[in-house]
């Protein structure tokens, strides 16, 4: 085994049964420093595989595999997150409407405990999509008005 490997012993029977019940429920949420985190599909599958093996009473060995970087590096420094009040003010909408948009998945949201946090770039992206939709609607109405004989 290399230094990048780690073996986790089998869980005690009590813990194995509790883990089996949790996995059977099918609702898996990962919390990192009090923040609910939606894992990418491949990470979720790996975590569920690990938990399933532990629930079966098996010891597990974890190891990393060297890989070629496929994605560009993330920008240095933390990404600023807004409270829902700050995000609503930046978008010029009510706090309730913003919450409805995050609940519907229209605007992505991160959780810090039970508190929602929203990236400014997600608010800007949503605003741009709203402006584009408004412009498209105006263009459609303008072309419809030009063909209206009653307006002549």
Q: Your description of this structure?
A:
This protein has 152 residues and is an alpha+beta fold. The chain has two domains: 5-63, no CATH class; 81-132, Multidrug-efflux Transporter Regulator, Chain: A, Domain 2 (Orthogonal Bundle), CATH 1.10.1660.10. It has five helices and seven strands, in the order βαββαββααββα. The chain is elongated, with a radius of gyration of 24 Å.
Topology summary:
Elements: E1 5-8, H1 13-25, E2 30-32, E3 35-37, H2 41-55, E4 60-63, E5 81-82, H3 84-91, H4 95-103, E6 110-112, E7 115-119, H5 120-146
Antiparallel strand pairs: 1-4, 2-3, 5-7, 6-7
What can be said about this structure in brief?
The protein is built from five helices and seven strands.
The major sheet is characterized as: 3 strands, antiparallel
Number of domains: 2
**Fraction in beta strands:** 15-25%
Share of helix among residues?
40-55%
Strand order of the largest sheet: 5-7-6
> How many runs of DSSP E, i.e. beta strands?
7
Instruction: Please report the number of helical segments.
Output: 5
Whole-angstrom Rg: 24 Å
Topology order in helix (H) and strand (E) letters: EHEEHEEHHEEH
Separation of the first and last Cα atoms: 84 Å
What shape does the CA trace take? elongated
Low-confidence stretches: none
Let me know the average pLDDT: 79
Structural class: alpha+beta
